[in-house]
Structure formats: structure tokens, C-alpha cells
Amino acid sequence: MAENEGPRVPADPPDLPPPTGATGATVESPRRGGRRWLIIGAVAVVFVLLIGYVVGGAAVAGGTVGKADSALKTTVSHNNTIAGIFDKDPFKDVKFEGDNPDLGGAKAAVAAFKQQVSTWQADVSGDRAALERVRPELSSSLLTLPEQATINNRRHRVDAGLSALSTAQKAIDIDNKRVAFLEAFMDALAGFVALGNATDLAGVQGQLPATGSNLQKAAQLAQPPAIPPEVTPIVKAMQQAVADLQAMVKAVQANDEAGFNRANTALEADVKTLSNFDADAVDKADKARFQPLIDAYNRDMKIAAGS
């Protein structure tokens, strides 16, 4: 060093790159690296939660949809049986023509029809209960949001199934009332046959009270819409015939020739009214009564089946 030179002040140090590891990768400060791992961890947690939400929601939705599908399958499987509610005619193969109608066949037909109605009721009640149990589970929720389209579809089908069963129940209610009327009406017809077969005045007189009572019961049950109003005239005509027969019996007992003639003339009018009864009008009224129910049932059941 030359004399009189003071100590040298080192120049500003050059900008040097940060130290590197053995592989040349940049080494970060511990604080900066920890922050990055926290961010990655948080993202991972959210991702796992999202997966859990989707998977859990799908599992919940899948269980609900499975129960709905099972209930719907059972309901639809009963469709062919329940459809008989709307078009079953208990008198289809029973003949009423002639002076001696097949009342035994008629009563057997009514009894068989009554048993069918009971079977239909059991199916409708069971199917409706199954659909009503699963229906509350088919509501919207955040958990099942990913599968909401499927749940909405099943809810729509379950609602349609419940509507179809409600229509079927209306038809069953009508059929139960029809059975009650027919049972009383058959008993009244049997009374008329017995009156026709009576061989003496005592036989006629003894049969009249029961026949009149059965007709009164039939008249009370012959209420629309369960029973077509076209049936009312024949029931009233039969009631009038019983009343005229009673008048005839009294006239004979009192030896009242004029009274007997009046009763006989009235009976002839009763027979004419009964002979002119339009059975086809009752059949048409039955079809008109059931057709709207048939249309509504078929429409809803088609939706319930997923068609």
C-alpha cells in the first residue's frame, strides 16, 4: 500500500442471486413456504368436503329414489287388476229375461263382484300408503341438490300415482254403494218371484211385508251418482206394484169388488211400466259416469309408470 493512502472503503456489494440448493431450486423463507402449504391444505379440505357433499347427496338421493321406484313398481304392477274397477259389470253373464230370471246367478255375480271390490280396495290402500310414505322424502334440500333432477322426476311420478289411486278410490266408493244397492234389489226381486209363485191369498199376503221392506231399502240406496238416476223409475214402479198388491189383498178380504178392480187396473199399469224399462239407458249412464274417471286414471297411471 502506498504511503499516505487511507484505508479503502469497499464498493457497494453487487446484486447477487439468492442462494440456491444443490439442485438449483430457489430456497424460500420458512414463513413464505408455510403460507403456501396452508393454502394448499385449505383447498384440499374444500375439495374433500365437496366430494363428500356430492357422494353423500348422491347416496341419500339414491336411497330415496330407490324407495320411490319400488313403490311405483308395485303400484304399476297392480294396474291391470285395478283397471277392472272401471269396466266390471256384475250382471254381464246373468240373464233376466223371461218370467223366471236367474236370481241365483245374479246373487252369485254380486257376491263375486263384492269380493273383487275388496281386493281392489286392498291394492289401492296398500299402494297409496307406500307412496305416501316416500313422498315427504322427495322434497328439495341442499344435500340432494346434485341429484335434484332425478328426485323431481320421481316426485312427479309419485304425485301422479297418488292421483291415479285417488281416482280409483272414487270408483271403489261407487262400487261399494252399487253392491249395497244390488244386494237389496236382488232380495226385492226374489220377493217378486215368490209373489208370482204364490198359490193362495195367504202366500201373497205373507210375502208382501219383506218385499216392501227390501224395496224401501233399495230405494234409499239408489242415490246418484253411485246409482244412475235411470234406475229410480223401476224401483218406484216396483214399490207401486207392492202397494197395489196390498190394496188388492185388502179388497179380496173385504169382498170389495170395486176396490179389487181398481187395484187390478193399477197393477196392469205397473206391469206396463216395468216392461218398458230401458236397461240400455242404465248401461249408457254407467259408461258416462265412469268414463271421466277412466280417462283421469289412465292419464295419471301412464305418468306414474314413467311413460
Account of the 3D structure:
The protein is mainly α and 307 residues long. The chain has 9 helices and no strands. α4 packs antiparallel against α5 and α6 (201-221) runs antiparallel to α7. The longest helix is centred in the middle third of the chain and has 50 residues, at 148-197. The relative contact order is 0.09.
Main attributes?
mainly alpha, 9 helices, about 300 residues
Question: What is the structure about, briefly put?
Answer:
The chain contains nine helices and no strands.
Q: What is the helical fraction, as a range of percent?
A: over 70%
Low-confidence stretches: 20-29, 37-61
Shape: elongated
Helix vs. strand class: mainly alpha
User: What is the strand content?
Assistant: under 5%
Order of helical and strand elements:
HHHHHHHHH
Instruction: Give the end-to-end Cα distance, rounded to a whole number of Å.
Output: 106 Å
Output the number of helix runs.
Answer: 9
- Average pLDDT works out at 77
Number of E-state strands: 0
* Cα-based radius of gyration, to the nearest Å: 43 Å
Largest sheet: none
Q: Supply the number of structural domains.
A: 1
Task: Please specify the SSE layout and strand pairing.
Blueprint (H helix, E strand, L loop, with lengths): L29 H48 L1 H4 L1 H4 L15 H32 L13 H50 L3 H21 L10 H22 L3 H19 L3 H26 L3
